[in-house]
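#structure-requests
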Amino acid sequence: MPAYLFTIHSYRSWNADHPRGFVRYGQGIQPPNSLVAKFYDSRAKQEPVQFSERHQRTIAWIAWDACRQRNWRLHAVAFEPSHVHLLVSWRSEEPWQIVRRKLKNLISWALAREFHQKGRRWLVRKGSRKRVRDQGHFNYLVARYLPRHGGSFWKAGDLPPAAPIWASLFGRSPRAPSSDGG
């Protein structure tokens, strides 16, 4: 059963002038560059997104609900204002690219609905992923790495994340029981 830690950044939350550098597709990590950052800013069509508590609640719920609906397992969710980590496993033959794409699409859809901003870019195009190597790696992620993040944290076994009010329109119970806690 594959298990992955997906990291998805919010739109324009990590610019090229970030003190820790930036990632250029196909070239890896680059040193900070204020000229590239200004160029990126001049080309941007929308303002940057930072995940507030409301964003985090919406993302945690839609990730939980999406996994529940597809018989995937959401083990943990952790946030920083600039990104979300989703620890997910599944038994189907779906490749990680499909799972990540479906989650990202649903997150964008849920944020657009929550904030009444259809057509808004919420997330970066790709995102990173790391396959969970073994049980020790999994335990480290859930018990140490993810809880240390600065935003909200949820893990399987906690109460399900609260559903947004609009979710009831789709027949989703705000506190639907789950046999596996996630």
